[in-house]
Amino acid sequence: MSDPQPQAQPGAGQEAPPLVINAQYVRDLSFEAPNAPGIFAEMRSSPEINVSVDVQATTLDEARKLYEVRLKLNAEGKVGEKTAFIAELEYGSAVTINAQQPDHLNPLLFIEVPRHMFPFARSILSDMTRDGGFPPVVLQPIDFVALFRRRVEAMQKQQQQQQAGDQGPAGTA
């Protein structure tokens, strides 16, 4: 006769997942076609598109490890020198992050969370430009790792400049 195997209690020994997406939402949405309807007569092909991307994060509740990440997409379409459209989207996500190491927090906030948000934001931007009467803007995948590295490098450079300014020659009175 064998001894029965002890059964694990539900939830016992389980660590919280490192990332929980609690909600995703549109924080701000704007579409302008400042030269409509005349711009449609001037369009011979799709407008030239310029896109900018930004990621921001804020702490909502430090004790509960609750954060908000905002993915900002701005797209401007031009036909020649004229602006065909300006589309702006700020897409937010409320997340819980259970980072085991403090240095894992920022990569999760600025790389992983935006990576999860991007397909939804891309779809909204595409629908918005299409519904505005223009060809849909279909964004290619974004390298959030490179975006994060540029952010870190810019912050380090700014800190170095501040330190150099603080250590400058002292004035005499």
Automatic annotation (TrEMBL):
<keyword id="KW-0143">Chaperone</keyword>
<comment type="function">
    <text>One of the proteins required for the normal export of preproteins out of the cell cytoplasm. It is a molecular chaperone that binds to a subset of precursor proteins, maintaining them in a translocation-competent state. It also specifically binds to its receptor SecA.</text>
</comment>
<dbReference type="Pfam" id="PF02556">
    <property type="entry name" value="SecB"/>
</dbReference>
<dbReference type="InterPro" id="IPR003708">
    <property type="entry name" value="SecB"/>
</dbReference>
<keyword id="KW-0653">Protein transport</keyword>
<dbReference type="GO" id="GO:0006457">
    <property type="term" value="P:protein folding"/>
</dbReference>
<dbReference type="GO" id="GO:0051262">
    <property type="term" value="P:protein tetramerization"/>
</dbReference>
<comment type="subunit">
    <text>Homotetramer, a dimer of dimers. One homotetramer interacts with 1 SecA dimer.</text>
</comment>
<dbReference type="GO" id="GO:0015031">
    <property type="term" value="P:protein transport"/>
</dbReference>
<dbReference type="GO" id="GO:0051082">
    <property type="term" value="F:unfolded protein binding"/>
</dbReference>
<dbReference type="GO" id="GO:0005737">
    <property type="term" value="C:cytoplasm"/>
</dbReference>
<dbReference type="InterPro" id="IPR035958">
    <property type="entry name" value="SecB-like_sf"/>
</dbReference>
<protein>
    <recommendedName>
        <fullName>Protein-export protein SecB</fullName>
    </recommendedName>
</protein>
<comment type="similarity">
    <text>Belongs to the SecB family.</text>
</comment>
<keyword id="KW-0963">Cytoplasm</keyword>
<keyword id="KW-0811">Translocation</keyword>
<keyword id="KW-0813">Transport</keyword>
